[in-house]
Amino acid sequence: MSQDANKPKIREAVALSFDGKTAPKVTASGKDLVADEIIALAKEAGVHIHEDPNLSEFLQLLEIGEAVPKELYLLIAELIAFVYMLDGKFPEQWNNLHQKIVAKA
Questions:
Q1: Which keywords label this protein (predicted)?
Q2: For residue 73, what are the contacts with CB-CB under 8 A and spacing of at least 6?
């Protein structure tokens, strides 16, 4: 068994904001107790939480207020789109296509 397996896992959290016009920005970042507080505040506010240790580790390298690098745009865009759909928000041009999809048995 390696020494890494015995180390307590460090909790990390990064909060992003997105205004729909510019790249998402880091609004909060922290580890352990600060991470717990970020997550608690997000849950209290009804914010969806995506758990991805690799993404969190990378985003931890960014400063507060810094935009997400373009290399992550597609990944972050997919997450934002998924959250919008969870909240029942769909682009107008879809013309309620999501309601027209019928599962075939």
A1: Bacterial flagellum protein export, Cell projection, Cilium, Flagellum, Protein transport, Transport
A2: 23
